[in-house]
Amino acid sequence: MFSLIPVLSVGLCGTKLGCGEGGCGACTVMISKYDPFQKKILHHTANACLFPICALHHVAVTTVEGIGNTKSRLHPAQERIAKSHGSQCGFCTPGIVMSMYTLLRNKPKPKMEDIEDAFQGNLCRCTGYRPILEGYRTFAVVSGFRQCLKHSGRLSPLLLLHLFDSSKFQPLDPTQEPIFPPELMTQRNKEQKQVCFKGERVMWIQPTTLQELVALKSQYPNAKLVVGNTEVGKEKSIEMRLKNMLYPVILAPAWIPEMNAVQHTETGVTFGAACTLSSVEEVLRKAVAELPSYKTEIFQAALEQLRWFAGPQIRNVAVSDSGMLAHSPLISPCSTEGKRTVTMDEKFFTGYRKTIVKPEEVLLSVEIPYSKEGEYFSAFKQAYRREDDIAIVTCGMRVLFQHGTSRVQEVKLSYGGMAPTTILALKTCQELTGRDWNEKLLQDACRLLAGEMDLSPSAPGGMVEFRRTLTLSFFFKFYLTVLQKLSKHQNGPVSVAREGSWGKSELYIITLLLLLSFYSSVDASEAQSVPGFVCFVSAKDVPGSNITGIANDETVFAEDVVTCVGHIIGAVIADTQEHSRRAAKAVKIKYEELKPIVTIQEAIEKQSFIKPIKRIKKGDVKKGFEESDHVLEEMYIGGQEHFYLETHCTLAVPKGEDGEMELFVSTQNLMKTQVGSLGVPSNRIVVRVKRMGGGFGGKETRNTILTTVVAVAAFKIGRPVRCMLDRDEDMLISGGRHPFLGRYKVGFMKNGKVKSLEVSYYSNGGNSADLSHGVTLLHLDNSYNIPNVSSMGFVCKTNLSSNTAFRGFGGPQGMMIAECWMSDLARKCGLPPEEVRKINLYHEGDLTHFNQKLEGFTLRRCWDECLSSSNYHARKKLIEEFNKQNRWKKRGMCIIPTKFGISFTVPFLNQAGALVHVYTDGSVLLTHGGTEMGQGLHTKMIQVASRSLGIPTSKIYISETSTNTVPNTSPTAASVSADINGMAVHNACQTILKRLEPIKQSNPKGSWEDWIKTAYENCISLSATGFYRIPDVGYNFETNEGKPFHYFSYGVACSEVEIDCLTGDHKNVRTDVVMDVGTSLNPAIDIGQIEGAFVQGIGLFTMEELRYSPEGNLYTRGPGMYKIPAFGDIPTEFYVSLLRDCPNSKAIYSSKAVGEPPLFLSASVFYAIKDAIYSAREDSGVTEPFRLDSPATPERIRNACVDTFTKMCPSAEPGTFKPWSVRV
């Protein structure tokens, strides 16, 4: 029990565990302490999943429960996020609230920039961030945004004003905050004493003097030094689980005066090694403001890097020896033998995580020097995500010129991410010394760097071409920066280099961490010696069937053959999570490796497909091609991790009679969770769902992987068993969105009109069928009328964890391929893409390629409205002008439509039930078959019941969803839950109302309470069930007949982006969305769903990349390597409009589904990026079409912006090396 989070989970459940590595902010708490060095009370945020429990000596912790609650009073930070609709699933909300609360404790009147910076360490998967920022903007002293977000609801001023009313928010009163505990203040004058805590396997020692520390380090040379636990904590979190590492002795020097000191000397600023990065930032910022700019070149660069280094929760506790080491030329280690000063040069690093600092030494201080006149320093970093991300490549560059000249006296170029350690380009620096800072130097430097900064094509981390190119791009940026400064100081003209001017020189689950293998034995005998061990559970303990899965092609526990990394072999039950983890590591498995299939390409070559292969044909494709030109191409779309903030979790409680069991599960699918593995009827298994911390389709079927294991374990021991997967386990085991390969041939006329399409889709289904036969073929048209279509859909069977449903469920991949060929043919025709798209749009009454008639077709209205509201044509001209004037920054814009079919394509799932109880006091208890995961379903169902019964929403309550109230529930998925459950609720309410009619007629002026009381006294039932099924839905792929969808949702988005051609970075400048949601049941919820889906789509198409080894082992198992969008990734201007006057007669109260349809609109960002890349390529004289696969990561953007730098770093020939990662 090393970190704070396990302690908080006992009684204080507000603080959430999202990742266990300090990457999501769900566990944010406020740490308060009296700082004897600054002589004041400090408040700062920290990650409870990393903060050591032993470091809480003399420290106060405030959790979300400590600032307010619904029983007494909400704190303004809680109230405003709730009332501004900034909380959906709610799992991230406590962490975000605590980040805001801590900021308000330190700055009761913050600027908007302060608020944005405070959230750099927090993630949200549901909201799209906009409502959080808008709600908290009410605390800001000025209303300006760095992320200059605009209100949603542009088309309806009333909607704008009533999403929330800030005038009703309670004011913030800083005088009413809890005081710092007096008993901790009394400790400030007492002498500090050494503290020692001993656990089962770890000893924590907190010395109070430097002498004690160096003596302890001499005694325990391999001891780890911990202050904030941001480094060791992550190692403990990840490496202890994955690599079985252990740190028996930990030394905590946080209270040692010398290690907290800050000294301003003649040469620079010296920071004690225990100074946090936040305090370093504060000191440097003050120095930059007070000192001459020529002295603070290094300080300014350090501050810029610190801004993007982790989040505040990390910077508040991380210390200079871990974070600032790369920026400092001098460090001071000390030991029992004394103190020495070490220069950080090319000899400092001796290997990965190894330096010349001796094991018995401790780092005392780090000096950051002043810069001199004529000295310039820059630091650069490129990552997948701008905020809180580890660099792909980073560098520090320094040049000193001979006095009054532009001749190089000294130059240092250091790079991270190009070797196991930080390395210096020594040969390049030597060659550049004594040279004039001009274009010839630039050309030679790039040539030399291209040779010196080489990487093996198999280098860990991959992205070899990109990383090599970045080393040149960064130097070019440094060259231009220095050139500008030289010009400014020397009052001369700036000669900006353009590419063309310089030459062509160019519980704990046990899985087998092997892919496909046969295992012969499992030995759990050593696990029995671990404290707290209860028992080991495997296939032989399953009382019912070990067969599971939607297609009955999976097993609860692996038997003999393991078919993927993450296939569960067994489980260890122990008294604590830590003990179960230790016991699981002690289980021994003998195995023999088999040859796996990992990628789509391998599956195609080996014809490894999950049957059936689906087809849709319409018209005469051959004739269509004969009458038109055609384009042959393909596109790959990567998968996506759900990254719900709450991982899969289950609590199984056996009842002890007749096999009864109660399951508390985070699931979207209660019926499938009534596990058959126990060998008892479903009427003995009660599944309960209060709410989920996000789902997005990931908990529709894959939760049964964990639930069945936990249920079997509880059945075996006859006691409650609980398991919540760690983030890395969840990502490894549960699968995600399917990667897709689309191959197409499209025929078209010279005016851009599409005549014929032949397309094949290959999805990586993983090791089982699950829900892989989705709706991709039904969305291959997106919104376009294609007269002749021939399509095939293949699900590749591979040895990866089974992929599954994810918001959009195959639709986004199908539509993405459509927009790819639409983009290609527009280029081929030489026509504006928006014109080509528009002439191919469907019209009212058209038949789709699956022969369904389009009724209530509002897409063209959405299109015209989006063109108008986005000021598309005027902005397009401005973008063209911008691109003419800028070589290394380019802008692009794209407008994209979507047509999304609504209903389950499996007809019998389009049903729902509801149960309504009316009590004698007039209150109503409502239950329905849908689950709440942040999409506002319960809120909408209460609204439906309120409107149906004619009573206030305050009288209606939903407690939970459970199988003993509404049986045989369809999963909460496919965006239909509000439709089908809403109608079921409405029907149940109508039954109640029909029974009340005679009473209401006899007492028309009576109140609801009067009528209910009379009904009860007249023995009239006040309980009713409701049921609904969608009529006339069903489709036959063989005959291409039927009606797969009940209706369609429509929308259009226009997005503008700006790319950095040198680094591949991009900014989302502006997005306008117009969405048809019918007559909205709840505009605030619907706008939140649109924004949340759009931002999730930004992740899918531009950021989130799952990376696998050639053997199929997942590298990206947490927020450290897998990046979802953060606060800073949303469009700077974000407008969402709901189409007016478009009632939908086919759903409850004329509404429409909204959960999935908006997600694909974020493809507008992808194709805007592609548009910008075209402009960059044209400047390099490259005009032919190019392939851009999804996601459009910085790597793909940079490599596509072909220029001299990319030509100097060519790719190795495929097949000549083993890549670090493969595209699955």
TrEMBL record:
SMART domains: Ald_Xan_dh_C, CO_deh_flav_C. Residues 197-373 form the FAD-binding PCMH-type domain. Its EC number is 1.17.3.2. Binds 1 Mo-molybdopterin (Mo-MPT) cofactor per subunit. Binds 2 [2Fe-2S] clusters. Keywords: 2Fe-2S, FAD, Flavoprotein, Iron, Iron-sulfur, Metal-binding, Molybdenum, NAD, Oxidoreductase, Signal. Substrate binds at residues 700, 809, 905. It catalyses: xanthine + O2 + H2O = urate + H2O2. Its cofactor is FAD; Mo-molybdopterin; [2Fe-2S] cluster. The active site is at residue 1156. It comes from the Eukaryota. [2Fe-2S] cluster 2 binds at residues 89, 92, 124, 126. Residues 1-20 form the signal peptide. FAD binds at residues 225-232, 309, 363, 381. [2Fe-2S] cluster 1 binds at residues 19, 24, 27, 49. Belongs to the xanthine dehydrogenase family. This is Xanthine dehydrogenase/oxidase.
